[in-house]
Amino acid sequence: MAISKEIYKVLEAVVGREYISDDPVICESYRSGPGGYENGLGYERVMTRVPGCVIMPRTTEEVQKIVKVCYRKDIPYVPYSTGFYGPRSHPHVENALLIDLKRMNDFILDEKHFYVEVGPGMIYSPIQEECMKHGAYVVIGGGGAQASAVANLIGDGWSPLSHRIGLPHRRILGTEVVMPDGEILRLGSLAEGEDPFWGEGPGPDLRGLLRGYTGLRGCLGIVTRMAIKTLPFQPERLEPTGISPNTALNLPEKRIKWINFTVPSKEAQVKAMREIGHAEIGGAVTKVPLFWRAIAKAESKEDFWDIWRKENEESIANFFIVRVLLIGYTSEEQMAYDERVLMDIMGELGGVARRTKPTDESWIKNADSAGMWLMCGGYVSLDYVIETLSQSTEHGQSYADLKKKYTPPLMPDYGDPGWFQSFELGHQGYSEFLIYWDPDGDTNPVDQFYVDTSKMNIKNRYYTSLLGPHQPLYLTGPKYGPNYHEFLLKVKNEFDPKWMSHPPVPLAHDVFVERAPWMHNMKDWESPDDLPK
Amino acid sequence: MANEPAVRYYKPRAEFKLDITDMENFVYDMSRCIKCKGCTWVDHTYMPGPKFMTRCPSAARYEFDAYGAYGKMRIGHAMAEGRLDWNDKALEVMYACTLCGACDVGCKRNLDLEIGLALESLRVKAVKDGVGPMPAHKKIADNIARHHNMYGASHEKRTQWLPQGMVPARQADLMYFAGCNASYVSKEIAQSTAKILKASGTEFMLMKDEWCCGNAVFSAGMFDEAKALAERNVAEVRKSGAKILLTSCAEGYRMWKVDYPKLLNISTDDLGFKVVHLVEFVKEKMEEGDLSMNKPFEGRVTYHDSCSLGRLSEPWTPYEGKRGWMGCVEPRLQRRRGANGVYSQPRDILKAIPGLELIEMPRMRENAFCCGAGRGTQEAFPEFAGWAAAHRLEEVKEIGAETLVSACPWCKNNFSQAVKAGNTHVQVLDISEVICASIEG
User: Fold this and answer.
1) A246 and A221 in one domain?
2) Which one in A468, B66, B179, B188 has a CA-CA gap of 20 to 30 Å to B437?
3) Does A469 reside within a domain?
4) A506-520 residue pLDDT tens
């Protein structure tokens, strides 16, 4: 139902005239594509719509009032923080109300108790800067420094720093949620007062529901406030240097440094990560896709291709790198000790330390995932898998093998098995597979590859975090459950019986497969006839 | 090429130019915006914290996505596809923007999209489509046509800024182009500049009949009017035999160095004379020992990077090429990323002045927050321009500076108004005044 003038006036009264608009020009600016994460693909073209109206609340109370109006008047709505996460975070139905949360960018740092409290409009890099000024740090997720911390944490937000900090969404403390019907739910200690320092209680702890519903994307309400645990960092300032585009943080060498090693084999790579974790040293241990090195060296897109096309399957298959970030959390002596341990480990494995710049361009504060679009124009991280270290490398290789079938239109990467790294001091291995394509080409095979990867994961029994809303729920649910999909849908129906909060998530990908003719030959699973139309 | 992939990648090639008279040249750039909002946030490496996070005045003031470059790219793309037409809101979105280049620099941190040119092309389109520019811009264009200055002031009074007793040379290697603002409004800047030139022992001449540089009309998308001014002014300088064209106005500097070549489809190097801002001249004279600044200037001073002197000032080179597979272009395109703007010279000058303590604002150089005045914004959207200046002054207060120095009369003027309106205790000066005050003798 379109938003009537009467309802518009009601909403206008909530936020003020300046912060609501149904002007087609304003609404067009909230279109998901044509560029960006997962944009240009069939999912974006088939499933996203320009909102019918945009509203920008400033407070939780305003969000609550807006949502109550929507629920009462059957107006579908979508919460939106920065809009970076492509079509999944944009309206999927006509005449939806887009609730732009960028004005809710409150920030409070509790230095004594090591946490920050933020609104959904607050992004990562200011949080990290403020934390570092006070001797603390957080992980800036792979989504990038420009991502909303709240959105990123209730989705997936990790980086090489997760080697020590762990899965960042474990660091969610007290959280406030406006439920789909407008009721306010406060998790952890927020339920009993204004102090968000504790997540488990004494109030309800439904954080697992938020983050476990990976790909929540607003389909269970709107997080309006979140406390995030911070962890102690080293005290010296990381001074920014350079002029854009070549900016970096200078690292105080006795307290923090990256060292890049080459090792003789994949086995040595995995063993190095395990041993480093076992020794409980390092702030980050990672192997990133090799073409990222070409991106770092290139001065332009064309330059990238000049560098990258010198590689071949053999050169990629025989190049093994381990990047280690050492941090003297407590003292210079601690870091010197860690470095000696690291050198012992790498020495035993035949690792050779390469010359490494005394700067950080990517991970500590910047985490600028925007560079991913430079080479081809189209990009998505197709899958994230959390396994053991040795299994995560298998996952990457399986992907690389499957990918050959879809190359082109995917970019030639010569079999690079993606990004993998140690999580939580080697207790977990993380594998992320990234794909790139030219949006001007035929992208239908990219849509098909997406679903084919689900089938591969099911076949090989990999745990993938991109279940549910990122894949056809009726494909993945029965295989990961057997009643995983039924559980998710029951939760959705309980919290949002009218399906007003970002419909048709979590069945959006199921609907996409039904609507896109080029996906029909991929469908070899059962789904009900009454999927949302 | 060795190791060519087994499968041939084929992509039809599309020709394009860096020509703002045809928006089609920038549809590719519009279509590749990824909403990372690098155009809006301060470079994350330099992110100063939760207080001064953005560098786009338009997005910060109006907040809807439409006002950030990411929104404008989507709107422009929809117009190019014929899905959206102009209305009052579209005009406001496109013109309530200082074209300060922050978005362009931010985007080229990662993506190399030509955001700045795309925005300029949208304004040219607005004019071509008969909906632009804003009424204030039409008035300026009319004033220039009638009086050769944007204010509609008497043309005869243009050189009345000259200090008493100072007579410019009839012929000299250096021509000083004062511009409308310093000629009629902020005369102290033109006067200080002339004194500095004299103090360095440099003879200078003025244009025989100086006309407006056309900054406001060019920025408003009135390409033909701006081109006519460019042709006339460049011809005047060439005729004069000047080897150097010096400005003390950042906006004028950008016009002469970047936008005149753009309008005339030539390279900056092909102008036939060198374009220099006062701070570049002074820095060189200091190094050569021809100018010493010995008088103390006591106080805590901060420097505001004028957009047109910093991130917008890299020289212009025309480009025509083809875009092919994966969007690669040939021949190679040397992107203007703002890295080589005039950032260090004003700082070096201020640091050389005894007694002056230079302190930096959190947002500086390519990350600086525009004062809000430039490129016709103050005339069309005075409230917005005032807001932007007041916002920047918050940063000045945050660091406890007593004096705010810029290198452009538009910045000085706008900041001075904001200081007055906000009853703020900050002294606003142009760098020419500070240099002048420190020159001995």
Assistant:
1) no
2) B179
3) no
4) 899 999 999 999 999
**Angstrom distance (rounded) from CA A529 to CA B329:** 48
Whether omega for the bond prior to residue A532 falls within 30 degrees of 0, making it cis, is no
How large is the greatest C-alpha to C-alpha distance in chain A, in angstroms? 73
**Domain with A148 in it:** 107-232
Query: pLDDT tens digits, residue range A417-473?
Result: 888 999 999 999 998 888 999 998 899 999 999 999 999 989 988 877 666 668 899
CB spacing of B111 vs A373 below 8 angstroms? yes
Q: Does B66 touch chain A (CB under 8 A)?
A: yes
How would you classify the pairing of strands B244-247 and B174-177? Answer: parallel
**Proportion of chain A above pLDDT 90, given as a percent:** 72
Q: Same domain, yes or no, for A215 and A299? A: no
**Nearest-Cα residue of chain B relative to residue A300:** B112
Q: At CA A173, angle to CA A172 and CA A175, rounded to 5?
A: 95
In a domain, A89, yes or no: yes
Is B329 at the interface with chain A, CB within 8 A? yes
User: Do the Cβ atoms of B106 and A244 come within 8 Å?
Assistant: yes
Tally of structural domains, chain A: 3
Give the minimum alpha-carbon distance from B63 to chain A in angstroms, rounded to a whole number: 8
| Boundary residue ending a domain (A437, A454, A475) | A437
Candidate from A103, A127, A248 with C-beta closest to B45? A248
How far is it, in rounded angstroms, from Cα B369 to Cα B51? 13
Q: Do A94 and A191 fall within a single domain? A: no
Does some domain include residue A227?
A: yes
Q: How far is B41 from chain A (nearest CA, A)?
A: 8
pTM: 0.96
Burial group, residue B209, by CB count within 10 angstroms (0-12, 13-18, 19+): exposed
Q: Are residues A93 and A145 in the same domain?
A: no
Which chain B residue's Cα is nearest to A35?
A: B32
A339 and A430 in a single domain? The answer is yes
**Which residues, in sequence order, are bridge partners of residue B330?**
B322
Does the ipTM surpass 0.90?
yes
Locate the domains of chain B by residue range. 15-438
